[in-house]
Known about the structure:
- It is a single chain.
- The chain has helices at residues 17-29, 34-48.
- By secondary structure, it is an all-alpha fold.
- It has a domain at 20-49.
- Helix 1 crosses helix 2.
- The longest helix has 15 residues, at 34-48.
- The two termini are 22 Å apart.
Amino acid sequence: MxxxxxxxxxxxxxxxxxxxxxxxxxxxxxxxxxxxxxxWIIAEALKKNGRLKKKKKSxxxx
Length: 62
């Protein structure tokens, strides 16, 4: 069987301590991991600014 291509990419992010502390608290308040919170923030910003392609129903995973 062919190896399935990953839909996520990893990258390094440098962030100052004060911002990281605020991010970690925000994530905890919403019961998310810090990584999950960053993904949510980025996705919301992309949607708000019309930069994220809309998924077709056939593209969505059930």
